[in-house]
Design a protein that fits this description.
The structure is a single chain. This protein is about 40% helix and about 15% strand. The chain is an alpha/beta fold. The strands form two sheets. A six-stranded parallel beta sheet has the order 3-2-1-4-5-6, with helices on both faces. The chain has a two-stranded parallel ribbon with strand order 7-8. The longest helix is centred in the last third of the chain and has 16 residues. The N and C termini lie far apart (about 50 Å). It binds NADP nicotinamide-adenine-dinucleotide phosphate (NAP). The site of NADP nicotinamide-adenine-dinucleotide phosphate (NAP) has 26 residues, from helix 1 and helix 4.
């Protein structure tokens, strides 16, 4: 497939590398322009392009940028992108650690619903609940015992099916996470967030999440990350 990746950091770089290795034609963009991506391109086999080009070239576009940066994307970025193109949002809202406060999300809009509103088109939520290290190292062929499962949430069944196939292609068991209104079940800090679960356990984790705890889950996750990155005193 032709796949555009917007964001060339930890997640975008790894996704581009894995996808190119599997024979996809990957175009990748960051905020600084294609000339800053020469080394990554040589390493991954992806073609460096502008964000505008990455939004146009593929059958799939992956948004792999910080949530706050979605608001900085050019307004008309997807204006000429055919409606058949699937946009995947892999982002997580981290207000304290990175993004600052986004009022609409704090008032209850789901992370990916806000992203869809910002870019003016539907998104499929996937890959947000897997740490970069697991994405890098833990994809394995179908049928391998202990294979990690990843949930995919979104409203268009066709678009979701394409992303579920991509999840399998990258070495993970695809699990349908429901429509976008259910995507809170895989947001930061939920039982389904970054625990590298197998399919049955992931389904159980998605089902047991508590909608009234979305903000609490997020705060707990940010606290966990802060503890993890705090300087160690010996
Ligand atoms: N890291 C993880 O383990 C992980 C796991 C799952 C989900 N996520 C989520 O995935 C998203 C990306 O995370 P990451 O860790 O890959 O971030 P990262 O390493 O900080 O990389 C961010 C990338 O976004 C690009 N970018 C920022 N603003 C942009 C813009 N306006 N236009 C085009 N590109 C832009 C940056 O380009 P420049 O460097 O040129 O500015 C950079 O390449 C975040 O929402 C994160 O929460 C992360």
């Amino acid at each position: 497939m032709r796949i555009g990746v917007i964001g060339a950091g930890s997640m975008g770089g790894i996704l581009a590398c894995h996808l190119a290795k599997r024979g996809h034609h990957v175009s990748i963009a960051n905020s600084r322009g294609p000339e800053s991506l020469t080394a990554l391109a040589a390493e991954t086999g992806a073609t460096p392009v502008s964000a505008a080009a990455a939004a146009q070239v593929g059958e799939i576009v992956i948004l792999a940028i910080p949530t706050k940066s979605v608001a900085d994307l050019p307004r008309a970025l997807f204006a000429n992108t055919p409606s058949s193109v699937v946009v995947i949002d892999i982002g997580n809202y981290h207000p304290d650690l990175r993004d600052g406060r986004i009022e609409a999300i704090d008032r209850g809009m789901l992370d990916s619903q806000w992203v869809a509103q910002q870019i003016g088109r539907p998104v499929i939520k996937a890959f947000n609940n897997l740490f970069a290290k697991s994405l890098l190292e833990k994809g394995v062929p179908k049928g391998t015992p202990g294979r990690i499962a990843l949930s995919v949430a979104g409203d268009s069944l066709d678009a979701k099916a394409a992303v579920l196939r991509l999840v399998g292609d990258l070495g993970f068991d695809p699990v349908d996470g429901g429509d976008l209104d259910n995507s809170w079940r895989q947001q930061p800090g939920t039982p389904a967030y970054c625990h590298d679960l197998e399919a049955a356990a992931l389904r159980h984790a998605l089902a047991e999440a508590d909608r009234s705890r979305i903000a609490e889950y997020r705060a707990e996750q940010e606290a966990r990350i802060k503890r993890h990155i705090a300087p160690q005193h010996h």
